[in-house]
What does this fold into?
Amino acid sequence: MTTILCSFLCRYFGRDFRTNRSFSNKIDASENEPIKFSTSQASRKSARPLVKRVNVDMPWYQPFSVVGSVAVFLIYFCVLREENDLDLEFNKTLYDRIKGLEKEQLLQSYRFNKEHGKNVDDIERRLKELEEQENKLISP
It folds into this structure.
């Protein structure tokens, strides 16, 4: 398994990782001192770019054309366009979409706040408002 992984990495990165490694158990006195970067082997390495830049032949005006098109679209979509039925649907809350959800969540909040000794006045007030709205819908 290890040799398969190593051979894959060697093929993928194009070098053999095992040849550049050397391990030693002895500790040098200079090991606790800082290493000067300009004299180390790391200063001679150069980073290979991960993504190769591809020269694409495009007209000089293409970026301006794209920015202009996007700007015109955003002005139309955000400013000039009239609202339609879908826009009005986005304005609805979750409580408007699912009947009884607000009352259920208020009851759960009421129980939780009662158990933990918190104020429940606002919850009771909203529950009364919801019950009044339900009574108006039931008895016209």
Remarks:
- Residues 62-80 form the longest helix (19 residues).
